[in-house]
Amino acid sequence: MTQRAGFVALIGEPNAGKSTLTNHMVGAKVSIVTHKVQTTRARIRGVALEGDSQIVFVDTPGLFRPRRRLDRAMVAAAWGGAADADIIVLLIEAHRGVTDGVKRILEGLEEIGRGRQVALAINKIDRVQAEQLLALSKDMNERFNFVETFMISAEKGHGVGDLRKWLAARMPEGPWLYPEDQIADLPLRMIAAEMTREKLTLRLHQELPYQLTVETENWEERKDGSARVDQIVYVMRDGHKGIVLGKKGETIKAVSQSARAELEEFLGRKIHLFLQVKVRPNWLEEKERYSEMGLDFRDGNQ
């Protein structure tokens, strides 16, 4: 049997459903899914197996109009991921149609998409009527020469299998890039930090949109098979520290319990998770923070 392996870049606006689709394709939670936009900071890769093909998904940050250094680095990472991929899948939301953001992405695709296979996936199809879907598909295909169009619901799984089979058949011939049991190439420290950041984002809602980051400072394997994980939550102001800690430490305790439970389920073993909150006013301008998130600090200079 001929083995195939290659990279697929999922691109789209923030909240288009890229992380949900990655997780559904891979069959495990490797990418943060929240109701907040711009939660995927680094190029998280999930590895899916379909027959003799190994598909490595590059789950890029959502493409949007960047304002700050972190935004610019995220957008650069997204286009970098797309440029390196064998196939690009543009994910758009059925009910939102051709937004200004989608138009900007199409302009970007004109530059990097030449000679590449670019597929269109219209997500959240359960939110609109069939006629609207067909009109949107026609409109998008008139704007760009997509090799294939898929109608999917990443959340419910509709059409996801068809997309995965289509991608698998188009992966370049060659040996698999990752061991069969490996679903993501992110270090465990980073996956653990992302899980905690997701719980904080869900818990705090509008209070601290993007002004915190989580780093796994220490990971200690223990003889009984468990691990001690120490993490630091960096915030920009003293006032933010109080919000993250919560009354009598209730918020950080709840976040810690929730993140620990998810990490234990993910790893299948006991985890002792310890969180600290520290104020670091300029973390958005620190090179090391970007390295931790898998982003290039220099890309924020543009």
Summarize the structure.
This protein is α/β, with parallel strands linked by helices and 302 residues long. It has helices at 18-26, 69-84, 100-112, 130-143, 160-169, 188-204, 238-245, 250-267, 287-292; strands at residues 4-12, 44-50, 53-59, 87-93, 117-123, 148-151, 212-221, 227-235, 271-279.
Question: What this model shows, in words?
Answer:
The protein is an alpha/beta fold and 302 residues long. It folds into two domains: 166 residues, P-loop containing nucleotide triphosphate hydrolases (Rossmann fold, 3-Layer(aba) Sandwich); 114 residues, GMP Synthetase, Chain A, domain 3 (2-Layer Sandwich). It is 37% helix and 23% strand. The chain is built from nine helices and nine strands. It has a six-stranded mixed sheet, sandwiched between helices. A three-stranded mixed sheet has the order 7-8-9. Helix 6 crosses helix 8. About 4% of the residues have low confidence.
Unreliable stretches covering 5 or more consecutive residues: 31-42
CATH level-four homologous superfamily name of the largest domain: P-loop containing nucleotide triphosphate hydrolases
Termini Cα gap: 47 Å
> Taking strands numbered 1, 2, ... along the chain, how are they ordered across the largest sheet?
2-3-1-4-5-6
Strand content: 15-25%
Radius of gyration: 20 Å
Task: Give a count of the beta strands, DSSP E runs of length 2 or more.
Answer: 9
Write a concise keyword list for the protein shown above:
alpha/beta, 37% helix, Rossmann fold, 6-stranded mixed sheet, globular, GMP Synthetase, Chain A, domain 3, 302 residues
